[in-house]
Fold this protein.
Amino acid sequence: MAEPPVGSSGALDALINSPGREGLTGTAPVNIYLRGRERESMTTAPNRSPDDQQPAWREDFPIDWPQDQYVERRDFMKFLVLTSVALTVGQFWIVGLNWLRRRSGLPPARRVASLSEIPSGGSLVFQYPGELDNCVLIRRSERELLAYSQKCTHLSCAVIPEPEKGVLRCPCHEGSFDLRSGSPTAGPPRRPLPRVTLEVRGQDIYATGVEVRTI
Amino acid sequence: MAMVRPFSRDQRTTIIFGMLAFVIVIMVLQLWLLTATMNAYLGGDQRVIVPAALVSLVACALNVGLLRSVWRMERVSR
């Protein structure tokens, strides 16, 4: 470290702005506040005691803990910022999915079954709008037809209609939905089942669209 | 001439802790936003999707800005 500036007689220099002391009002040189690289790269024990008071094993593991902590937090911050970027990408992925869904428009109407195929209190499984989209058609009474997507809104297990109890039950996690509205009544599901809109044309039942809902 | 005094390592560690706290809060908000938006999308609610994406973008820019300031701080300290 540099020697403190002293006057010619060895006394402290009282002058302000003398060489090496610009901007200071005390007697310390400017560079006393500048930390050199040496100090930064010094190995420091966690208890900050001098080296000769440290246990012998520390010599085998000379970790600079303050530096390690600094680098660790900085790298953790970088990782979190990277995660933040990934979450933003995820948001825009949803925007893209939504755009594709809007672009595809309404699915075309499709014949599901004839009225004579499904008795009152009965149900049948059909595919709509895609070949892999299972739906369930329920005939509660002679004049009441209901249809929902068969995928549970929790984890996509197939729901089972139980018209006598007035529910659609998901056996995976004991979730249940109200048969009349498709709203969740018990278990982990939070969103109602997508409702398939139906139309009866003569003796045939047609699916005409899918209505997804948040509540 | 103004003297630029670099931060010491202890000061930088304190600054990093502060920034980390901000980044964590922002990231948790983004995580919540993503799950809420996904729920809205699956439920057919399209109104919130684009505004949520824009908010997430702003939050991400804030995080990247904080990280850039760390890099700048380290460059000055070298």
